[in-house]
């Protein structure tokens, strides 16, 4: 819901979540190229994140404590927003694995070779295309954390069907 790169999402900390008026924001998101950015959470994303923080994350902290205890180590909540099953920071391979699990569950009636290949970066492209259609180049570049509009074109490739539909609208 925010168009973040996987690494950017993995590096979010719980303390970066701020409520400003009626809107929740992630502040000081570390973006590519040593840049930092604040991004608002859309309503569905906000609900999912708040639900995760309230209901899922505490169980992952407890799991981290138990994991550390079995190994004879101390555990303190590392503060990362997204935690793995052993209470550590989630990494890019974990995100890919979780996405594949969701895809396999959603398409379990299809043969494995018929299931669509969807990557986290493809979801970023989908976000970028939808955002661009609504807000244009400049806002899309800002939302994606790009310093140049040149990158926006990469995310806005259209299918032949979409281009034909756009041509029909222009001629109308």
Number of separate strands: 3
Q: What spatial order of strands do you see in the largest sheet? A: 1-2-3
Shape: globular
What is the helix tally?
5
Describe the protein.
The chain has helices spanning 6-10, 43-70, 92-106, 120-144, 160-171, and strands spanning 17-20, 23-31, 35-40. It is mainly α and 172 residues long. The protein has a three-stranded antiparallel beta sheet with strand order 1-2-3, with no helix packed on it. A hairpin with a 2-residue loop joins strand 1 and strand 2 (23-31). It starts with 5 loop residues before the first helix and ends with a helix.
Give a quick rundown of the structure.
The protein is mostly helical.
Summarize the topology.
Layout: H1 6-10, E1 17-20, E2 23-31, E3 35-40, H2 43-70, H3 92-106, H4 120-144, H5 160-171
Antiparallel strand pairs: 1-2, 2-3
């Amino acid at each position: 819901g925010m168009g973040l790169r996987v690494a950017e999402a993995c590096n979010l900390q719980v303390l970066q979540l701020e409520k400003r008026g009626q809107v929740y924001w992630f502040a000081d998101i570390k973006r590519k190229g040593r840049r930092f950015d604040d991004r608002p959470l859309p309503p569905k994303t906000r609900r999912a994140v708040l639900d995760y923080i309230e209901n899922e994350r505490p169980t992952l902290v407890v799991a981290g404590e138990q994991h550390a205890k079995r190994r004879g180590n101390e555990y303190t909540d590392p503060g990362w927003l997204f935690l793995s099953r052993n209470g550590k920071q989630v990494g890019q391979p974990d995100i890919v694995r979780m996405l594949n699990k969701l895809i396999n569950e959603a398409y379990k009636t299809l043969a494995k070779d018929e299931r669509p290949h969807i990557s986290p970066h493809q979801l970023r492209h989908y976000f970028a295309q939808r955002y661009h259609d609504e807000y244009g180049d400049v806002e899309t570049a800002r939302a994606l954390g790009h310093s140049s509009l040149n990158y926006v074109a990469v995310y806005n490739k259209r299918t032949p069907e979409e281009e034909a539909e756009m041509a029909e609208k222009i001629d109308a």
